[in-house]
Sequence to fold (739 residues):
Amino acid sequence: MKLETFSLDVDADGIAVATFDVPGRSMNTITAKAIQDLNAIADEVGANAAIKGLVITSGKASGFCAGADLGELGGGSGGGGAKGDPEAQLKVAFERSFQMNKILRNLETCKKPVACAINGLALGGGFEIALACHYRIAANDNPKLQLGLPEAKVGLMPGGGGTQRLPRLIGAQAAAPYLLQGESMTAEQGKSLGVIHELAPTNQLVGRAKEWVKANPNAKAPWDEAKFKVPGGNANTPGGGTVFTFGSAMLAKQTWGNYPAQKHILSAVYEGLIVPIDAGLRIESRYFVKTLMTPEAKGMIRSLFLSMQDLGKGASRPAGYPQYNIKKAVVIGAGLMGAGIAYVQAKAGIETILLDVSQEAADKGKDYSRKIVEKDVSRGKTSKEKGEALLALIKPSTDYSLVDGADIVVEAVFENPEIKAEVTRKVEEHLGAKAVMGTNTSTLPITGLAKASQRPANFIGIHFFSPVERMGLVEIIKGKETSEETLAKTMDYVLKIKKTPVAVNDFRGFYTSRVFGTYPEEGMTMLAEGIAPAIIENVGRMAGMPMGPLEVSDSVGIDTMLKIGRESAKVAGRSYEQNPVGDVVAWIVEGEKRVGRKAGKGFYDYDEQGKPARLYPDLGKKIEVKVKECPPELKVELTKRLLYRQCVEVARCFEEGVITDARDADIGSILAWGFAPYSGGVCSFVDLKVGVKKFVEECDRLAEAYGERFRPNALLRDMAAKGQTFYSRFPPKDTKAAA
Fold:
């Protein structure tokens, strides 16, 4: 028997040990070859009379198994089979997906005891292998050990028995967070739930597992016992029926029906628990195929796993430049943004100088980090010693001479070109010739700001999002004279502080702020049209956005929107208030003195915790509400307006060269402003959820009904005519076009 990803050794007692160890990888994942090897092992154990039992373990110090290889899975989601024959394709897809269930079931029913020795991470398919074993023993000395089924987080569902075995072990209600939300459990939690039978030190796992195998020659899975009953009952029992009734309601509330995977998971559990497990596994495989073929699954796998992983490793970094080692960084401006930047730098081990106009302001900026550290220490997330070491890296000051020796400077002062120019000149008096001069801005063109620099090739935009310590994205903006080397250095900086970088070219608002701004603007356009504010907000959330457009406006600051709107209108030679949206914004800010969440009042009234308490009841003083009901067809139309408007602006960004990689567009849209994560991002929404040709047709209709802001540009029309997608027109650099 030839194995590539496993080894199989049989000891003198006839106990076989299958060691999972994929060559050339730091972590085991389930590939097609691993499935073949597992099948061969199951056959050998079942057929070889000399083998009395089996222990499955890992040869990796990093853990047992991180789950399926989503690169393989994402590339093979079409189903195969005869072209033009959907039924044949479905049959092939089902057989392929059912293979894992069949193998694990054969192992489970081989009439020999099977134990799993779990030394670390066991997620997804790795956890499902463990669940198919009769006995599970986990390491109690590995704090990184996690057990779970995270498939739902990337638009998938378990496909190796997870929806059937976990509820049969602990009950549907207890299993719900792990199946529907992708939560993970520690070894100790697994033991208390009854998922793990025994805990032991790592170096004793295999030995103890062997002892159990020898002592239990007639082991069976609980559900193969004649009198087995599902803990808590199934859908046909009073208790179980209640769980599924309330579970369906809660799922609808949390997902708005946008996530097929969660719906299919609940259906698989509901249907699977009322039949024997063999039928339940076939039910799971059918739903797995159904899920895998949805545009949501394809988009989420591509963006939330594959692209996120690629960009997180610097896939967009210009080649040919040595890695830039950032040891010392300077942050100018100790306000909320600058203080957050200083914290993430220090957390990454970078010596940080935090400068402001007064020592008091600089010290206050460092206190921001101190509060985070104290909170983390109190919650056991870090030690007091590590916290003190982090804080020691931050030096608050007013002395610009401390810039000397810095590898990078990030200026984070007010959004005012004159102030930023003054700071740039003062910094460059002390900055080394090869160091990077970065400016944190959300709207001001980098090329214009670079005019204050003596070295525009070293000048670049570094757009952080607030709060910096929680937001995972950094938008890097090249000015007209920014060099590729500076871009590479900045990418290295962003990766070092453990953020995901996306690279864009210069334009007012760049990519994220420009596109994001269309969402609240469209919401306020609806408001000006007389659509009830509550309808606008609810439709926004139902569309998959994290907030309604009016709440977003409050969070950004309506006064900030007024200022930016007036500046943009002035450049265009018109009055902002001539626009119905501008008129509403000016009224609520200047007439009603309501500027947003920061003041506790905007389109919403806010409670003491800063949470929206109610929509401002006097909005009717300015706007006559003409639409008070929202039938399904109106909900569909408003959803299209809110989402399509953003996507049209993305197409304009591509046409103007602001963004050049579909991955950057998708990841930027999800991480920066929360664009409908179920879609995989703006490009995947158009490519997979709608289709470019249909999108262009719908946008033409919307333009006729609501205005030219929806009109498709020449790029979109050309893509539709040529049958292209964003991913085929703007593929990842140095790769073949993706479908």
